[in-house]
Amino acid sequence: MNATNLFKIALKAIANNKMRSFLTMLGIIIGVASVITMLAIGQGSKQQIKQNIAEMGSNMIMVMPGADRGPGGARLSADAMQTLTIADYQSIVEQSKYLAAVSPNVSAAGQLIYGNYNYQTSVTGVSQGYLEIRQLKVESGEMFSETDIKTSSKVCVIGKTIVDELFPEGADPIGQVIRFKQIPMRVVGVLKSKGYNSMGMDQDAIVLAPYTTVMKRMLAQTYLSGIYASAITEEITQLAIADITEILRANHKLRAEDDDDFNIRSQEEISSMMTSTMGMLTMLLAAVAGISLVVGGIGIMNIMYVSVTERTREIGLRMSVGARGVDILSQFLIEAIMISVTGGVIGVMLGFGASMAVKTLAQWPVSVEMWTVVLAFVVCTITGVFFGWYPAKKAANLDPIEAIRYE
């Protein structure tokens, strides 16, 4: 019996039991659609995280004061968290060979006031290099100057959220004076909007001021909260980190056996950690969704058993007129695979639709990749073969005489 006849017989058997075949496919349809949707959500989330980190500066390096833990794992005192100074920042600027931009970082929390409007936020003290590091752009006005930094001028650059909160009536904020902790600050620039990042943080609720202004006028402190830098290229980030480590250890006069009294983190590490976490979460979701495929496969096996039982006499007649065991095996196996693959096709279409619905209705980033579709078809075929083999083998091993006598 040739392959064409086997396909026709299998197709006719499915067509004669449309409802039963559809219900058999349903487990496969739901399983494939679930797997594709879950993988699309996971892949979309990973891409969104990478994009947001890239927008923050994929080659950004963050230097924080103090070691993670002291001897025995104890938390360090506040004094140990005051190890970074302006001298450290200047040494990195002058000595590092792998950095495109460097900026100190200090922050003061409080309330901004303009007229009858106020907004709770923090003022971040930085240098001009901060814009390049964080990939920020001034949309109107200008960035404060080196002269403003040297003279600790009371000027600031604000984000779109600050503009909306303090100037809701549409007034031009450039040149206006706002107050922070009773300190008047003149707005010299407005940053281009960046929106929310993947962690739900508003990147436009930002106020930048000269770091000297924040340190002297707002905090009255001589140490830095951190130092931000960006490597010339992402590929040399690790070289830049090693260079910064060497400079700071020399500045702090640390001996070879002494631990670093600072921490250095890069966006590459953060990106790798978050991508790994999202990858594991995606696989977990896909595994849970994949249980539906197993349930669907069991459904195929069950229905094929019923089909073999119902068509026992037909099998006996076919074998008595010359059909071989391999023909009977192929017939039922093709039927199982057709049910599985057809359910897979419908499942893929449903998975696409569900992914687009999640993207549109839930505003969640999704990405349906070709390998997920290929994986779905491969799994469907394997499911059909695996769960259809035993019933088909049982049919092929029937004794023709006993099968014909079967009632």
List keywords for this structure.
single chain, about 400 residues, alpha+beta, 2 domains, six-stranded mixed beta barrel, 10 strands, about 55% helix, about 15% strand
| Mean pLDDT figure | 82
Q: Termini distance?
A: 26 Å
- Count of DSSP H/I helices: 13
Element string (H = helix, E = strand): HHEHEEHEHEHEEEHEHEHHHHH
Q: Largest sheet, if any?
A: 6 strands, mixed, barrel
Tally the structural domains.
Answer: 2
Shape: elongated
Low-confidence spans: 69-79
Structural class: alpha+beta
Number of strands: 10
Strand order of the largest sheet: 2-3-8-5-7-6
Cα gyration radius (Å):
33 Å
**Helix percentage:** 55-70%
Taken as a percent bin, the fraction of beta residues is 15-25%
Q: What's the SSE blueprint?
A:
Elements: H1 3-16, H2 18-57, E1 60-65, H3 86-95, E2 99-114, E3 117-126, H4 129-134, E4 138-141, H5 146-150, E5 155-158, H6 160-166, E6 177-180, E7 183-191, E8 207-210, H7 211-219, E9 226-231, H8 237-251, E10 262-266, H9 267-310, H10 312-320, H11 325-361, H12 370-396, H13 400-405
Parallel strand pairs: 3-8, 5-7
Antiparallel strand pairs: 1-9, 1-10, 2-3, 2-6, 2-9, 4-7, 5-8, 6-7
